[in-house]
Design a protein that fits this description.
It contains 12 helices and 12 strands. The chain has 317 residues and is of the alpha/beta class.
């Protein structure tokens, strides 16, 4: 099939949506399809559209359906689609969802916010991650906690840094953060935090290889998002065996499981600080998190993600 894959332009080529879209394009090509990835739809004929982000891709979906009303659209629901825009954009997100022939969510709790008439079209495809080339070797000079993701409001990006501030004076926690600041205000806040917080380092936007190296030396990874669709960095941490300390929001629980022990209430600095202390002081806690991740790891195998896309395309033929 000829497939057009729509992924809206972002402030960096390493936004979560664009990284995911590039991986999906590779999967679809592996399955034998011709894939053209673009930020908007220009009217070129295609047998099928895969669109990322209901709100940002709304015009592209509408143009495709007007021109080819009988050809299918697969819509991947981003976190902002289902946890923000669905109730705040005058119905644009819902119209895109209604026009799509299939909806793809990245976590298994997304159904809770999808309107009941559309749930039959919903499929969950976990984002996969490949094993890292080298074995994990946590840092010996500090207890490194990584924060991987761009600095923007919904990610609550400085929560780990603030939690590190309230730790006892003998704590060895060091928060290392990578990701581009979406605004000058976030960049200024990160630099100001570094200037006054000896337990925090922000490295800015770094290549993928540097992200992998950070994971390899991390004792844990924090994802503190206020809402989340299903972050690929969680998949990567699980596959790498890096304990995850996560805000208890559906997008994280839908990846890590409801019985996972590494959650804290979103926005709760003191609760995250307590998890940091357990990370340092309770070896059994770390082992418990590791066992839980091992149980979840098969969900994020590349072969499983490829098979899910194969089944989805077969439904639409």
């Amino acid at each position: 099939m000829k497939i057009v894959l729509i992924t809206p332009a972002g402030p960096t080529a390493r936004t979560g949506n664009r990284v995911s879209a590039a991986r999906w394009a590779g999967i679809l090509r592996h399955l034998g399809h011709h894939v053209r990835m673009t930020s908007d739809y220009d009217g070129t004929a295609a047998d099928l559209m895969v669109a990322v982000h209901a709100w940002r891709s709304a015009a592209a979906i509408e143009r495709f359906k007007v021109k080819f009303p009988m050809r299918p659209v697969i819509l991947q629901l981003s976190g902002t689609d289902i946890y923000q825009y669905i109730d705040a954009d005058s119905g644009l997100t819902l119209r895109s969802m209604a026009r799509a022939d299939r909806l793809v969510a990245l976590n298994d709790l997304a159904w809770k916010v999808v309107p009941k008439p559309l749930r039959a079209q919903l499929r969950v495809i976990y984002q996969s991650a490949s094993p890292l080339a080298r074995s994990r070797q946590p840092s010996r000079r500090a207890v490194v906690v990584s924060v991987i993701g761009h600095l923007r409001d919904v990610k609550d990006p400085l929560r780990a840094a603030e939690a590190a501030r309230v730790l006892p004076s003998d704590s060895r926690i060091l928060v290392e953060q990578v990701g581009r600041a979406y605004t000058t205000e976030w960049a200024e806040r990160a630099r100001a935090e570094m200037a006054t917080n000896r337990r925090y380092q922000w490295h800015g936007d770094v290549p993928a290889a540097a992200v992998r190296r950070l994971l390899l030396r991390s004792h844990a990874m924090v994802i503190s998002s206020l809402s989340e669709g299903g972050a690929n960095v969680v998949s990567e941490a699980i596959v790498a065996g890096v304990p995850v300390l996560a805000s208890r929001v559906d997008g994280n629980v839908g990846l890590l499981g409801s019985d996972y022990r590494g959650y804290f209430p979103a926005g709760d600095t003191k609760a995250l600080a307590r998890l940091f202390q357990r990370l340092e002081r309770e070896p059994h806690f770390v082992v418990t998190l590791g066992k839980a991740l091992t149980r979840r790891k098969p969900l994020f195998r590349p072969a499983r993600e490829t098979a899910a896309w194969r089944r989805l395309l077969a439904e639409l033929r």
